[in-house]
Design brief:
single chain; mainly alpha; 0% strand
């Protein structure tokens, strides 16, 4: 067993600064990850909103075309019958 002299276990300012810097890096990296997560969530929300809008436009156009086809069919029957 090796004995360690207490005088060799001095306070090391470099070690303390290094640990403090690691703490700051951790906080900064967590903040950056939070910002990236927020941006990703916003992009996902906007994408889903655009898909919903596109589906609504498609449904509205299909409904309009079917209604116009129905009006045309009734108009043709009416002209044939008279």
């Amino acid at each position: 067993m090796k004995l360690v002299c207490r005088s060799s276990l001095r306070y090391s300012p470099r070690l303390t600064l290094s640990l403090a810097a690691r703490g700051h890096i951790l906080v900064v990296s967590l903040l950056m990850m939070g910002v990236i997560l927020l941006l990703g969530s916003a992009a996902s929300f906007l994408s889903l909103t655009n898909v919903t809008i596109a589906n609504n436009v498609e449904t509205n156009l299909t409904t309009r075309y079917r209604a116009e086809a129905g009006v045309d069919a009734v108009s043709k029957r009416k002209h044939r019958g008279s």
